[in-house]
Predict the structure.
Amino acid sequence: MTNQEAPANLRLHYTIMCEDVRVEIQSQLSLMGIFYAMQVPQLPVTLLKLVILNHWSGEGQYFLKCAS
């Protein structure tokens, strides 16, 4: 969000880190390779693919910036 106060009704329900997320035929999500914990010998680390799945609820306009 840019220069805005976070809305009081915005709520983060959960965050899941996994290797891939696929949308199935009936709009269901399939999560592949869910991470319980990540331990790396050193930083920075290189991953082929990392997906962060967030479930939010609330109303309003929000800005999300993703690094690629």
Remarks:
- DSSP finds no helices and three strands in the chain.
- The CA atoms of residues 18 and 35 lie 5 Å apart.
- Strands lie at 11-23, 29-34, 51-57.
